[in-house]
Amino acid sequence: MQDLTVLVLEDEPFQRLVTVTALEKVLPGPILQAADGHEAVAVLSACDAVDIIICDLRMAGMDGLAFLRQASSSGKIGAVVLCSELDPALRQATVAMIHCLGLTFLGDLGKPFNLEGFSQVVKRYREHCSAAPKVLSPAELPTLNDVQQGLDNGEFEAYYQPKFTLQGQQLVGAEVLARWTHPQWGVLPPAHFLPVMEAHNLINRLFWQLFEQGLSLQQRLAAQRQGIDLAFNLHPAQLACAALTERITLLIKRSQVPAASVTFEITESGLISAPARSLENLVRLRMLGCGLAMDDFGAGYSSLDRLSELPFSEIKLDRAFVRKMQNQPKSAAIISCSVALARALGISLVIEGVETVEQQAHLIELGATLAQGFLFARPMPESHFIDFCMQRRL
């Protein structure tokens, strides 16, 4: 990877000198500096881009908050690192603001500047850049005709991300995710096709293709005495369809798959203003024997209200809480409370986004039992997933 360009925004001259000097000794790329937000804006406008901004928050003139807000629209910032004496609770709120601005947040070093901590930040940044998916240019983005042709040709494929017990890492099921095996661009994630599908009411076609693929997989595994529970994502618009549960019932009976081995995940935000028909379908799915999971729990505004009203059998805690758990005690407290809530309600709790053994250990301490994330397995195509199941001996 090419050398990194770093901008140090720090109003205190000695602290700025110490930081810049330390960075110049370990980084071969340019180290830029600014004493306030106005100067930082000028520095940013004079260069092509900055990989990492080390940002103080409290300063005279334009402070760090105002600078980040103004600079976020420039498209020139790779990532942000906080280096501030501000109260930890206020720094946490600033991190939320950084995410809302669409910026990549790498870490909070506090003060004084910690070179060892920054070295870890640089490592994460390089991993982030190398793991980032290929972004298609505007000229390459799929058109409506491309997506329709892909659906007609059966190019959309179910990928499976396993779910595990945190202790023992026993495989307990998988979430079904959509991927487009494009003949020209290779395997594309949902960000490249879902917006087009949502705008042109094609989500339903995608869902039924994935649902039938998933049921077929369950049949194949059942024939080898390897039962597996699968979870399918339902779009809020689908819930209002009068024929939804009738068709699901038909396909499940035809495939001879136990309804209890099928779960439907619905995002919390999709339930905020759900019509009566949607609520009826949720009840009917539970009457059929299927599971219902509230996805991204904690990311919306009506979690507890909907959880008390609707027949959910599972909560999937939004991955943001795990990501912030180490540096934000409040996130750990929310996870612990979610564990207690699920236990009191007699439903399952799945923790999303587990990526490190440290997170796994902390979640076990907090009482969590089920999880999914890159630590255990990434989403995989059907053939790989079958081999994965056989190796695990469900």
UniProtKB/TrEMBL annotation:
Pfam families listed in its UniProt record: EAL, Response_reg
Key words of the record: Phosphoprotein
Keyword Phosphoprotein set for record: yes
Gene3D superfamilies membership: 3.40.50.2300, EAL domain
Residues with 4-aspartylphosphate modification: D56
CDD domains reported for this sequence: EAL (cd01948)
Domain EAL per the UniProt entry, residue ranges: 140-393
Positions of the Response regulatory domain: 5-126
PANTHER family: CYCLIC DI-GMP PHOSPHODIESTERASE PDEF, SIGNALING PROTEIN YKOW
Protein name: EAL domain-containing response regulator
